[in-house]
Write a structure and sequence with these properties.
Layout (H helix, E strand, L loop, with lengths): L6 E7 L18 H21 L7 H21 L9 E5 L6 E4 L3 E5 H6 L4 H16 L2 H9 L11 H8 L3 H6 L1 H21 L5 H10 L13 H22 L6 E7 L2 E2 L17 H7 L7 E3 L6
Parallel strand pairs: 2-4, 2-6
Antiparallel strand pairs: 1-5, 1-7, 3-4
Length: 306
């Protein structure tokens, strides 16, 4: 499926005045272009399969919620990692599908409509779920995972990305040895997602209730995820910082600059309304310490282009 793009004019804080909360690694094997291109093809194939089965984007209420939530999260993502503005973000929902919520390299997200209904997610809980998935993209976890896997497969340092990726899809012994990496990446996605959603103006306590709803097992949690106790311990340890970031997101304007980015395709939305979002402080560090900050707005073009 060919992604629909729109030009978006986003007011971002002037980075010269502030300090980001998050830091990201860059020293991975394989190129981001190769990883993202392969993910885009796999995602497109998955969407075509779902569409042919009549299982893609069937829930208009969920579509409306995603249209409200995703732009706010994307704005926070771009603040923390400006290169996120260059990605072709895309999100869809599926019905009667195997996924609960997933992210592929390059900004390709999929969420289960049944899971959202079954667990009765509030908008804030849904935002933290989506922020977690976006965090996998920002941290380039797919690229990182395969880079690490080179040391657990035969002749890994001399093999290509696609080759190692294929082996990971069937080699249980290798996946078992990679289990600690899975767990660490999930905890990191929780951490990054907590920051993003708090900065986007979603109540931090929703992260706690989300983790409790997902629970420790069953169909909502993969075996590769950390335990509920691990996730809750980390989230509670971050709660005060997240509250201060949230408070900052609800207050007045910081120095800002305008950056053009690609609008994420949200359920093939061809004419989205103008969306105003909460702002970020001019200095994140001083905001965390004192609770001060400001809002600006993001104006989305109502026209789309292919």
């Amino acid at each position: 499926m060919k992604a629909l793009l729109a030009t978006v004019l986003i007011a971002l804080p002037g980075l010269a005045w502030g300090q980001r909360v998050l830091e990201f690694s860059h020293d991975f094997a394989f190129s981001a272009h190769e990883v993202n291109s392969l993910a885009a093809r796999a995602y497109g194939a998955r969407l075509r399969t779902l569409a042919l089965a009549g299982k893609l984007d069937r829930d208009p209420a969920l579509k409306a919620r995603l249209q409200r939530i995703v732009p706010r999260l994307l704005r926070a993502a771009i603040y923390e990692r400006p290169t996120a503005a260059k990605l072709q973000w895309e999100i869809h929902s599926c019905s009667e599908c195997d996924e609960n919520a997933s992210a592929m390299a390059g900004g390709k997200l999929l969420v289960s409509a049944e899971m959202v209904r079954r667990l009765r997610f509030s908008d804030a809980e849904l935002a933290y779920l989506l922020a977690h998935e976006m965090a996998h993209v920002l941290a380039q976890h797919t690229r990182e995972f395969v880079s690490v896997a080179r040391y657990f497969v035969d002749n890994g340092l001399h093999r290509g990305y696609r080759d190692i990726r294929n082996e990971l899809s069937w080699s249980f012994p290798v996946m078992l040895r990679m289990h600690p990496v899975y767990v660490q990446q999930e905890l990191e996605a929780d951490y990054i997602g907590f920051v993003l959603a708090a900065q986007a103006g979603f109540r931090p306590k929703a992260m706690i209730s989300l983790i409790k709803k997902l629970g420790d097992g069953g169909e909502t949690v993969l075996a590769t995820h950390p335990s509920e106790a691990q996730r809750l311990a980390q989230a509670r340890g971050m709660l005060e910082t997240a509250r201060r970031l949230y408070a900052c997101a609800l207050k007045g304007p910081a120095p800002r600059r305008h950056t053009r980015v690609n609008r994420p395709e949200v359920l093939q939305c061809r004419s989205c309304p103008t969306i105003s979002t909460t702002s970020f402080p001019s200095s994140r560090e001083s905001c965390i310490n004192s609770g001060g900050a400001t809002p600006s707005s993001a104006t989305w073009s109502s026209s789309t282009t292919r």
